[in-house]
Design goal:
Helix content: 25-40%
Distance between the termini: 39 Å
Number of domains: 4
Radius of gyration: 28 Å
Shape: globular
Structural class: alpha/beta
Largest sheet: 7 strands, parallel
Cofactor: Zn(2+)
CATH architecture of the largest domain: 3-Layer(aba) Sandwich
Pfam family, one: PriA_3primeBD
CATH class of the largest domain: Alpha Beta
Mean pLDDT: 86
Strand order of the largest sheet: 10-11-9-12-13-8-14
CATH topology of the largest domain: Rossmann fold
Low-confidence stretches: 1-44, 178-183, 387-395
Family: Belongs to the helicase family. PriA subfamily.
Organism: Actinomadura physcomitrii
Subunit structure: Component of the replication restart primosome.
Length: 701
């Protein structure tokens, strides 16, 4: 039976992918597709086309994102395509008068549809690219996130490259050997580390939320866990935030396993190379994968371990519908495959804390004595701290504590300086009355790109060289927020003769050497230093903490600890923020677990995720009202808003609003089902506007 009691059958071999019950499997009726009409109208004349003798009916997932068409449709397999039309292959079918792509899910003996079925037009590729495990996972992800099967498959299966498919298949690499000596095992630093590896080696499914020790050994620890899973005869999948982390884990896996025993999947590879590596995984030629968020659907055979590193990084958030998060996807894969799971980072998110509190995973961390030996020595200075007496240091906005720490540390090696904002001066105001400076054309914020340039609008790009304050008429401006480029310029004056290097979105440094240098970086772009940094300065903490975001404190602590983890043990780290703030205290103690537990308790009291489930609805007011009116929301559902959505620079069209629907955590699936059904009703009625539905969005503003 289906979850809603509708009695939908399950496709044999595809887990819980639902099919249309007998008597209902059919082609689209008038009004199903764009422009209406029967799926292809009358069956096209194809001469003496005959259906295959065995299992002549193919159930096809058509590449259509309309919610009311989110189900498989039946087609006949012609005898000439009998050998190619295998479950999981790509096909072309006629649907709503058009030729569209699709995936063949299964073949059965009969349809149960009384009418005449259309034939498959052709098999695009006989390669079974959609595995039963991924198909079942895609169905569940679509239902959990109020999305469609087709949308998930676009994320899960990369576009085809015929030339790559035709290339000779390489033989798989031999199974990995024992790897490094046990004395070099980074998991011995954790009391439960050996037990976790032993469970993997025995083919069991240990699940852990890992609070990693500061330092570079996290990649080697992941590689060792992957090697253990492979030696047990199972596959492994590692998902990290960006290409730089992929490169680190890739190098660690090569050192642990040897060359050719795993693949790395990133967007930077290009479509052809990425598809080549993806096919190697599909064909069983590689059983270990490391990649960014798109790799969460990689078709690893006999999955034995899933790993997610730094799950709080917002880069993990999928920008395309139905917006699944790798944490949820990998947790479902681990549950389905009875595989081990490792969700780790230098900090702990509230979402990971929920997994520990519910018993789904166990905490895996080093004891406090070992943490104290590995952590840097963190000190804080408030916003009103006295600046250094040196005039150059005052221009660099460095308090005495930070200036002296950097000066002494530069004698031994590089110093890391984290600045929350990129650019030169991303925010300016009137030099007299401090009124924020805005563009006269679009009211966007004005900024300075360099010390000698005129102000410009960050929204529309208009030069505002003749700007005057609308309040007092003054024409000079002052910096409200200072970016990384301006900070690097100021530090160069404060420390003459010291090289200053910058790392940010425009140019990210891969590594820095052990020589003395000031490395100014935005959060997330900090390059590792050979031997570690001799000190770290975390400037302008108020910029991160003052963001109007539910996760501001959690995200600030994550960015601080990721940067501080690059500093040598017991070396100084100075954070410019008030010491009484919980995030600052957690950084000083290097105790992200207690902070996450406190955050979760506050969220539970206030009724916010992850203690509750929440859906965000974005559209025009009329569309939101129509969707909510037609949705059978679960008991206890609470609608917050709607409120206006800030218009993006250059955006056109009607004003949009955003409503939030909150339910208890246990009612999350019921909420997604209700919203999906309401979306289907509006889709069948050909509503002029689609409501954007996001389940548990990272940002609630």
């Amino acid at each position: 039976m289906s979850e809603d009691g509708g009695g939908a059958d399950l496709i044999p071999g595809l887990g819980d992918v639902p099919r249309v019950p007998a008597g209902k499997a059919r082609q689209a009726k008038p009004g199903d597709g764009k422009g209406g009409g029967r799926a292809g109208g009358k069956a096209p004349k194809k001469g003496a086309r005959r259906p295959a003798e065995e299992r002549p009916v193919a159930r096809v997932a058509v590449d259509m994102s309309l919610p009311h068409l989110d189900r498989p449709f039946d087609y006949l397999v012609p005898v000439e395509l009998d050998g190619k039309a295998v479950p999981g292959c790509r096909v072309r079918v006629r649907f709503a008068g058009q030729l569209v792509d699709g995936f063949l899910l299964e073949r059965v003996e009969e349809s149960g549809h009384g009418g005449k079925l259309l034939f498959l037009e052709r098999v695009t590729s006989p390669e079974p690219v959609l595995t039963p495990e991924v198909a079942a996972l895609a169905r569940e992800i679509a239902d959990r996130y109020a999305g469609t099967f087709a949308d998930v498959l676009r994320l899960a299966v990369p576009p085809r490259h015929a030339r790559v498919e035709a290339e000779p298949v390489k033989e798989p690499a031999e199974a990995p050997e024992d790897g490094r000596d046990e004395g070099e095992n980074p998991w011995l630093e954790y009391p439960a580390g050996a037990s976790f590896l032993n469970a993997l080696a025995e083919g069991r499914a240990p699940r852990a939320v890992w609070t990693a020790l500061p330092g570079p050994e996290w990649a080697a620890a992941i590689a060792r866990a992957v090697a253990v899973a492979l030696r047990a005869g199972r596959g492994a999948l590692v998902v990290v935030a960006d290409g730089r982390d992929v490169a680190r884990v890739d190098a660690a896996l090569s050192a642990e396993l040897g060359e050719g025993r795993h693949v790395a999947l990133t967007a930077e590879l290009g479509p052809a190379e990425r598809y080549r590596r993806w096919l190697a995984v599909l064909r069983g030629k590689a059983r270990a994968v490391v990649g960014t968020r798109a790799a969460m659907f990689a078709p690893v055979a006999d999955l034995g371990l899933v790993v997610l590193w730094d799950d709080g990084d917002d880069v993990h958030a999928e920008p395309h519908a139905p917006y699944p998060h790798p944490r949820e996807v990998l947790a479902l894969r681990a549950h389905r495959a009875k595989a081990g799971a490792l969700i780790g980072g230098f900090t702990r998110t509230t979402d990971a804390t929920v997994l520990v509190e519910t018993g789904w995973a166990h905490a895996l961390a080093a004891d406090r004595a070992r943490v104290r030996r590995a952590m840097p020595r963190v000190r804080y200075v408030g916003e009103d701290a006295q600046l250094a007496r040196d005039a150059a240091a005052r221009t660099a906005r460095l308090p005495n504590l930070a200036f002296e720490a950097a000066r002494r540390a530069l004698e031994e090696g590089p110093v890391l300086v984290q600045v929350p904002r990129r650019g030169y001066v991303p925010g300016i105001a009137c030099g007299r009355c401090r009124t924020p400076a805005h563009c006269v054309a679009c009211q966007g914020p004005l900024a300075l790109p360099s010390s000698h340039a005129a102000p410009y609008c960050r929204w529309c790009g208009r030069i505002a060289g003749d700007w005057h304050c609308p309040e007092c008429g003054f024409f000079q401006v002052r910096a409200v927020v200072v970016g990384a480029k301006r900070t690097a310029e100021e530090l160069g004056r404060a420390f003459p003769g010291v090289p200053v290097r910058t790392s940010g979105r425009e140019a990210i440094l891969e590594r820095v050497g052990p020589e003395r240098a000031l490395v100014v970086s935005t959060p997330g772009a900090e390059p590792p230093a050979d031997g570690g940094y001799t000190a770290g300065l975390l400037l302008d903490g108020w910029v991160l903490l003052a963001r109007p975001d539910l996760r501001a404190g959690e995200e600030t602590l994550r960015r601080w600890m990721n940067a501080a983890a690059l500093v040598r043990p017991e070396a100084p780290v100075v954070v410019a923020a008030e010491g009484a703030l919980p995030a600052v205290q957690a950084l000083v103690r290097w105790d992200p677990v207690t902070y996450a537990e406190r955050e979760l308790a506050e969220r539970r009291e206030a009724g916010f995720p992850p203690a509750a489930r929440m859906a965000s609805l974005t559209a025009t007011p009329a569309a939101i009202r129509e969707l909510l009116a037609g949705a059978r929301l679960p008991d206890g559902a609470e609608v917050l808003g709607p409120v206006p959505v800030p218009r993006q620079p250059g955006a056109e069209g009607p004003e949009k609003e955003r409503a939030l629907v909150r339910v208890p955590r246990a009612a999350g699936l019921a909420l997604a089902r209700a919203l999906k059904e309401a979306q289907g009703v509006r889709s069948a009625r050909k509503a002029a506007e689609t409501v954007r539905v996001q389940i548990d969005p990272l940002e609630l503003i």
